[in-house]
Amino acid sequence: MRAVAGTDFGVHSPRWLSRFGDATRLAERYRVGRVLLAGDAAHIHPPTGGQGVNLGVQDAFNLGWKLAAQIRGWAPDTLLDTYHAERRPVAQDVLDNTRAQEELHSTEPGPQAVRRLLTELMDFDEVNRHLIEKITAIGVRYDFGEGPDLLGRRLRDIDVKQGRLYDLLHRGRGLLLDRTGHLSPGGFSDRVDHLADPTAALDAPGVLLRPDGHVAWIGDDQQDLDNHLCRWFGKPAD
Ligand SMILES: Cc1cc2nc3c(=O)[nH]c(=O)nc-3n(C[C@H](O)[C@H](O)[C@H](O)COP(=O)(O)OP(=O)(O)OC[C@H]3O[C@@H](n4cnc5c(N)ncnc54)[C@H](O)[C@@H]3O)c2cc1C
């Protein structure tokens, strides 16, 4: 501390010391056959912003229901591969923002000027919100193809008539939120719960949630819903 800061700040007699560097690495593939990587095994980065645990837990949350589906025999062929496709870009983004933050720690005039500029920009609510959503991972949106902005995002924990949405997701099943009164999970009801008339707070006629709470479909057409049920939940029961 004396060498770096010119003072020891009065700190003495440590009980525990740890060290870390600026290592920034990302596995090329999250899945090779039956081997899957999650957490720090898949990505490491400096601890700036305290993002490592959340990133790893969200990997596990993304992967858990897919592994369960595979073991239970109903997973569509491509489901396990979506783990790499969805989670690697999220880690890439975290690595980018920790790298950028490391640059800002430098005492060189260039990074210091960028730091001052960023401080100015953070006076804008929209910039702040963007950075907060990035660092808390609330802004994560998986690429499920063309669609409304909500598609691919985790639905927020809204109040529903039956309680809180996230309590209903504890069962680890899919969930169809249906304000139309005519949608049905049909032959998927062993894997997908149906919540009719859930709440006016839901700004869509019908929403299909995966077990990890991400929005897999939005709409009001049963045929379109059936296609998406097959995409995420395999074949319907007889
Ligand atoms: C100094 C520092 C500060 C940090 N601060 C924060 C923070 O504030 N917030 C935050 O979110 N993250 C922080 N992180 C990052 C966070 O600690 C990691 O991202 C997180 O612990 C990774 O969890 P993990 O389960 O993937 O891996 P690990 O925690 O590394 O767990 C892997 C486990 O596997 C065990 N293991 C290894 N090989 C074998 C084997 N062959 N057989 C059996 N077991 C084995 C290891 O002993 C270890 O217990 C920090 C990291 C550091 C270094």
TrEMBL record:
SUPFAM superfamilies the UniProt entry points to: FAD/NAD(P)-binding domain
Q: Which residue intervals define the domain FAD-binding in the entry?
A: 3-98
Organism name: Streptomyces lannensis
Which InterPro entries does this UniProt record tie to the protein? Answer: FAD-bd (IPR002938), FAD/NAD-bd_sf (IPR036188), RIFMO-like (IPR050641)
Q: What is the lineage of its organism?
A: Bacteria, Bacillati, Actinomycetota, Actinomycetes, Kitasatosporales
PANTHER family per record: BINDING MONOOXYGENASE, PUTATIVE (JCVI)-RELATED, TRK SYSTEM POTASSIUM UPTAKE PROTEIN
- Flavoprotein is among the record's keywords: yes
| Cofactor(s) demanded | FAD
Protein name per the record: FAD-binding domain-containing protein
Q: Enumerate the UniProt keywords alphabetically.
A: FAD, Flavoprotein
